[in-house]
Amino acid sequence: MSPPIVAIDGPAAAGKGTLARRLAAALGLPYLDTGLLYRATGRRVLDAGGVPSDPAAAAAAAMALRPADLERADLRVPPVDAAAAAVASIPAVRAALLDFQRSFGAERGAVLDGRDIGTVIFPGAPAKLFVTASLAERARRRWLELKAKGVAAALDAVEADMAARDAADAARAAAPLRPADDAVTIDTTDKTADQAFDAALAVVRERLARAGYA
Ligand code: C5P
Description:
The chain has 214 residues and is an alpha/beta fold. Helices cover 54% and strands 11% of the residues. The structure holds cytidine-5'-monophosphate.
């Protein structure tokens, strides 16, 4: 039996990251935020003075990624949000990042969050969640996050950027954002982080048990 994979997908700022990190700790599994791979790729292109929508530049950046790129403190800022969404629509970038994600989970199992974990990266994962929340609530959360980091931004601009990024993620031909057929949806709009976690843990435990994991 292959080690357990918990796939968590959903749109930006729906609470996936917090949830995934807590699930990984509760289950004793490694955690990978796959958005960081696309963010770090976009960041590399911007740093080199390139254009993130340029397939050759973006693919070269994805192939050159190093673990240290994922540790940078400047990956969650608006220019990188846009650059990540742009590189993520390029098939060669997605192909370059595929093996890393699969090998990450292969040895000990893992909790991974992203947009296509349950549909493309691990379609056979025994536990899949689709975590979502209303656009207004997600924009409010991202705005608070930016404010806490001292990044000035207007709430309506954050909401407009997020709506554009969601639309691009859902409309792209390469691995569009959509729930896997066998994913359980958790809407966190009216849930506290603890309520979302309790609901998610119950679903994941039930799915793993059903698939024969102790
Ligand atoms: O999750 P996060 O907002 O950090 O992801 C940044 C961008 O990376 C997303 O807008 C999306 O375009 C892309 N992404 C993706 N597939 C993933 C994770 C992220 O396309 N598995």
